[in-house]
Amino acid sequence: xxxxxxxxxxxEAVRNKILYxxxxxxxxxxxxxxxxxxxxxxxxxxxxxxxxxxxxxxEIIATVVEEGYGRILQKLREIPVDLENPDKSxxxxxxxxxxxxxxxxxxxxxxxxxxxxxxxxxVNMLDEGISKERKSIQSLCRMIQHGIEIGKIRxxxxxxxxxxxxxxTHGLLSRLVLEKRIPKEQKERLIDHHFNILLxxxxx
Amino acid sequence: xxxxxxxxxxxEAVRNKILYxxxxxxxxxxxxxxxxxxxxxxxxxxxxxxxxxxxxxxEIIATVVEEGYGRILQKLREIPVDLENPDKSxxxxxxxxxxxxxxxxxxxxxxxxxxxxxxxxxVNMLDEGISKERKSIQSLCRMIQHGIEIGKIRxxxxxxxxxxxxxxTHGLLSRLVLEKRIPKEQKERLIDHHFNILLxxxxx
Amino acid sequence: xxxxxxxxxxxEAVRNKILYxxxxxxxxxxxxxxxxxxxxxxxxxxxxxxxxxxxxxxEIIATVVEEGYGRILQKLREIPVDLENPDKSxxxxxxxxxxxxxxxxxxxxxxxxxxxxxxxxxVNMLDEGISKERKSIQSLCRMIQHGIEIGKIRxxxxxxxxxxxxxxTHGLLSRLVLEKRIPKEQKERLIDHHFNILLxxxxx
Amino acid sequence: xxxxxxxxxxxEAVRNKILYxxxxxxxxxxxxxxxxxxxxxxxxxxxxxxxxxxxxxxEIIATVVEEGYGRILQKLREIPVDLENPDKSxxxxxxxxxxxxxxxxxxxxxxxxxxxxxxxxxVNMLDEGISKERKSIQSLCRMIQHGIEIGKIRxxxxxxxxxxxxxxTHGLLSRLVLEKRIPKEQKERLIDHHFNILLxxxxx
DNA sequence: CATGAATGAGGATTCATTCAT
DNA sequence: CATGAATGAATCCTCATTCAT
Lengths: 204, 204, 204, 204
Fold this sequence. Notes:
The structure is a homotetramer of 204-residue chains.
Chain A: H1 3-29, H2 36-43, H3 50-53, H4 57-77, H5 86-103, H6 105-112, H7 135-149, H8 158-178, H9 184-202
Helix pairs in contact in A: 1-2, 1-4, 1-6, 4-6, 5-7, 5-8, 7-8, 8-9
The structure holds a DNA duplex (21 and 21 nucleotides).
């Protein structure tokens, strides 16, 4: 490894430290109490150094969110699709999504309940035509379409349907995250009942 | 009215002023920029006086949220129930809820996307047996039960169903609030499609 | 003295302390190194307290400047005018002005060599019609007019003449302030020669 | 060109880049916002490198000022002198000076309203005997002397007269620079009136 | 009951400068 | 000769809270 490479690597390392620390604080204390000072403290550097790696606080948060959410969506894409049972596939995907999010609830809050300009823009889902941009919605659309084709799902506007599947699941998820004390069994009952109603709602 | 009574009343008056001002700031500037000093400014009292009426900032917010949300639920209860069409009644109630919330999005965010301890507890909906506590859920439950009785809604756990109706609607609503730029037509399409799927999901 | 009065007085006292400290720092270290922290240090209060008395740094500076410059102009107005010799009166006034300024050179710099918006506006002198606003220019104008009337000053646009008397004197003054090491005798020779040329320039 | 020579030349080149960049920032953003990092950014070198060529920030500024002002004076010297009309020559030179300065007001401020030790020393004009050092004053002195000889200017101390011509013009100029909003016509009226009075003040 | 001055900690940023590489 | 990461102090300002009056 040459000198420049090691430099490069070290630089990357600090950058990642910052992002990791930011993510950690986000997860531990929530969005509101994420501060440059706290990050600097966490990584045991001086506050100023952070500005070598990021333009400002917003850029840090944006990066954390983007990478964090990206990682989740990545995992989501890896879920195998069962072409014979598109309705089951939808349920499985969304259930996987719920489980992933419940594992890192603070990230979920930081990303999906966040009202900061520039963050909300990165996870928007309700625009008309969004299915062309968001791969996750795209994938949902494909399942729905396939479901319609093989007669398991009734005929409906595909994108709108994908959006409603997502928003309704998002609603359950966000309450599960915010109402921390729900016992596991109740969680499961709610999730099951959610998909019970949702899939019936999609069916012929 | 005796002296002590007037004292009581005056005390109550200032307390309400504080809550009203806090709610106003919340609705105008959002949760993050609500500060004791701004409240004091708004009511034209000194900052110190606020601590006569409330232990700390958290208590103010908790109270505002509680009362604010209560008012919303109150309005909700005033919506007439059409016993012949419980499914329509459900749709109407929830649509009214959406509209009320879209009118005061900052309050919605402050209340329902808020993760502060003590606030989330006041709007929780997912506990088992919650229908005995929350009148709003109770009312939803009655509609569902009636729907089941007259055969318009399939047989399901009533409370769970009410919770899912609420969480799924909440999911759509929260995204509508956070994704600010959605055009009116798209909003309406989403809302309509949401109830299209939801009601089908409830039906026999 | 009642309680409220003493309160009032104490408040005024701190306010004045702040202004005095600001003036002192301005005079000692110059405009660029005036900071809220330094003021707070100087008055031995915490930095935050300053914001009870002034909206922000700009307001402090504006007040210091206004009061400081105002005091100078006040003194200027107290200089007796010799109606028989308006040219001598002009010289005396402007000489007095020079002397006053040379006593507090840092204030002069802070006020008259300052480029901050909001400060420059308070000492502007070149606008057409300014003689209606600035009493100091007004007074100069009166002397000129009188000089014209009794034939000691040639006929010229009065306001423009006042402005040039002021700018040219200001030019000498500003260099005297910035070139610190000029010996007293040289200073006097320059000042005398300045008025020698200036008054000849005004004469018939 | 040998290696050492090229090295010399390259070194000189970077040095000049730094000075050029500093001048540019000075002229664009003003004195207060000139920072080492901005210079480094501008020349696309690292901040550290600047300290190879200059001891500190002050040295850079001093050099920029010196060279910048020198360039202005250079241009001034190129203005042709009309020996028949030394008074007109004085007016033309000083008017040219005003115009040059009004073209780059930030430089003017940085140089001539600057109170930093080491800068003021480089543009001083008021010392006795300065005409032997400053070519610009020297040139002014020659015109005055010639004017006296041919009877167009009354007999006066030549150097002092040159200094007053310069300070009075400088006074007008500095206010024109600081009072930004003066309309063009008013500017011209002021400048004309300034020379009207000044030249009359010099005449027999 | 009410005041409002005061604190002390914390917020984001920017800076000149140093120094190991 | 040049890098650029790192520092530490400084910038202005806002905040919740306390407490003597």
